[in-house]
Amino acid sequence: MSEISTIAVLGAGSYGTALAVLLANNGKNVTLWARKSEQVAQMQNDRANQQYLPEIHFPKNLSVTDNLEQALETVDAILISVPSHAFNNCLKQAKPYLNSDSQLVWASKGLDPETGDLLGNVLEKELGFPVAHAILSGPTFAKEMAKGMPTAITLASKNKKLRKRFAKALHNDRFRVYLSKDVVGVQIGGAVKNVIAIGAGIADGLGFGANARTALITRGLAEMMRLGKALGGKRKTFNGMAGMGDLVLTCTDNQSRNRRFGMALGQGKERAEIEKEIGQVVEGVRNAKEVKMLSERHNVEMPICEAIYQIIYKGVDPKLVAHQLLTRDLKTES
């Protein structure tokens, strides 16, 4: 089985940049694509992404471009790492340079903003022809990954060849890749954990303490599992890196933008003010609306995710929502 040696990474945010650096440090020839020419020029000059990962120097075998055709020319694989709301547009731009032999992996965590659909379904509908595809997801902060700190992640694909080849391209003695066939479950985990992390942040912002945070994480996992099962995901996926692993990381560490957003909401700040302070996309904000659409479509009860939606989009007082959650009818744990 031939190795993947040339890779295009689409999206030069913190996560896309960290993945590009990781792959380049593994000896792959990597082209990092960004849509803004001024950002590309700055990265070419600095040999670093000063906006998102200022401490990380680019390896020699990592090039940067704003020319998408050039980025996708004769590469072995493509890795999309744009925010989930930009995923469909990125596909539209890339489509003219793709064919049935293309190998496509995405690291975007979330759902389609218009329909709440899984990104894997968006990919299949948008391209209109079959391509080998996979999703990369798990408990990974970009800065730690780029610095080479020990990390583990899940790569899911129904295509055995792509699964093994891309895992080999990523894997090193500090970056461990776990393989899965559960593309649906891994996608659900990556979207729902963002919403629950906002909830965990709200609880801490309200001063509810560790007991409440742990209860919220545990019940949030139950909601993730219910939605995942309804769409055909596997239970073991949600007990692994792309489920529980990513959920715990995002809910408990302040490197998480979703958690920080929630904390500020719990402290009484307004949404626009918080997003300006954070200065990067807070995926969980859109995911709250998307998960609501998806759960309603499949008639899945998700009271915590519903509560987060009510706070963000309806302006409901977080204290009131917390009271409503705590006074729900008694139920068995399942």
Question: How would you explain this protein's 3D organization?
Answer:
By secondary structure, this protein is α/β, with parallel strands linked by helices. Helices cover 52% and strands 14% of the residues. It is globular. The mean pLDDT is 95.
What's this entry about, in short?
This protein is of the alpha/beta class. 52% of the residues lie in helices and 14% in strands.
Keywords:
8-stranded mixed beta sheet, single chain, 334 residues, alpha/beta, 16 helices, two-stranded antiparallel sheet, 52% helix
**Percentage of residues in DSSP E strands:** 5-15%
Number of helical stretches of at least 4 residues: 16
Helix content: 40-55%
Which class of secondary structure composition applies to the elements? alpha/beta
Would you spell out the secondary-structure blueprint of this structure?
Layout: E1 6-10, H1 14-25, E2 29-33, H2 37-46, E3 48-49, E4 53-57, E5 62-65, H3 68-72, E6 77-80, H4 87-94, E7 103-106, H5 119-127, E8 132-137, H6 142-146, E9 151-156, H7 160-170, E10 175-180, H8 183-205, H9 210-230, H10 235-238, H11 241-252, H12 257-266, H13 271-278, H14 283-297, H15 303-314, H16 318-326
Parallel strand pairs: 1-2, 1-6, 2-5, 6-7, 7-8, 9-10
Antiparallel strand pairs: 3-4, 8-9
